[in-house]
Amino acid sequence: MKERTGIITFQGMPLTLVGDGLNVGDKAPDFSLLDNELADVKLSSFKGKVCLLVTVPSLDTPVCDVETRKFNEEASSLGPDVTVLGISMDLPFAQKRWCGAAGIEQVKTLSDHRDAAFGEAYGVLVKELRLLARAVFVVDQQGVVRYEQIVGEITNEPDYDAALSAAKGLV
Q1: Number of domains composing the chain
Q2: DSSP characters over the chain
Q3: Do the domain assignments include residue 72?
Q4: Which residue among 8, 64, 84, 151 is the active-site one?
């Protein structure tokens, strides 16, 4: 599997991303992730909808907490044709517990803990930490990536306005 350096850091320390990565215009790879009830969820099951794929290292960290709450707040203003998926390596049980405690109802959390296949396919698996990098992908109704941001410093938040604008522009 291809390894890429010079893209992200953690507190200034360079990290390695595993996978080729995606660009705007690429077909978004389908995936199979676990939801909070241990059911498989595939990107293909959202065909016809705009999907905001938000990857975070762990919901139990301060920046990921803030980010997921922000996307949860904004999700209702996106309308029924946009789905927000929060993806991490956290176990589904931990995601369910965190969502319940945080009152997250608009973001559907999914786990890539089984085999990190999503992380590799989207090029956001952090080799040194076996966590996902902080990133946002907007996938259109036909499954094409229309927006992509990998946050350079993993402790920083993404550009919410740009991601939300990209999603809104597709409906």
Answers
A1: 1
A2: --EEEEEEEETTEEEEEES----TTSBPPP-EEE-TTS-EEEGGGGTTSEEEEEE-S-TTSHHHHHHHHHHHHHHGGG-TTEEEEEEESS-HHHHHHHHHHHT--SEEEEE-TTT-HHHHHHT-EETTTTEEPPEEEEE-TTSBEEEEEE-SBTTS---HHHHHHHHHTT-
A3: yes
A4: 64
Q: Look at residue 6 and tell me if it is in a domain.
A: no
Average pLDDT, the chain: 96
Question: Is 99 part of the annotated catalytic residue set?
Answer: no
Q: pTM for the whole thing?
A: 0.96
Residue pLDDT, tens place only, 114-159? 999 999 999 999 999 999 999 999 999 999 999 999 999 999 999 9
